Amino acid sequence: MIMTHIDKNTLKHIGVCYIGAFLGLYGLSFVAGCAVTKEWCDSKDKGNHWCWYDIAADCLGMALGTLTHRLVFGSWVWF
After folding, report:
1. Residue 68 above 90 pLDDT?
2. What's the pTM value of the predicted model, to 2 decimals?
3. What are the C-alpha distances in Å from 68 to residues 9, 21, 27, 29, 36?
């Protein structure tokens, strides 16, 4: 059985990483670092835990943002 985990926090992860990758904010390494930092902070909240689904959502947001950046600007977000 495949379990899905999509809530408001997961959508925030996708959206923030999408916007960061689309705008090319300091490259993908910066966006990935922000994503991991947010998940680490989330895991320290009372009643919360580290969620690999949110990390997967971050990767999805970065991939979609990078592809959109490529279509709009004609270049890849690498640096």
Report:
1. yes
2. 0.83
3. 22, 9, 14, 17, 22
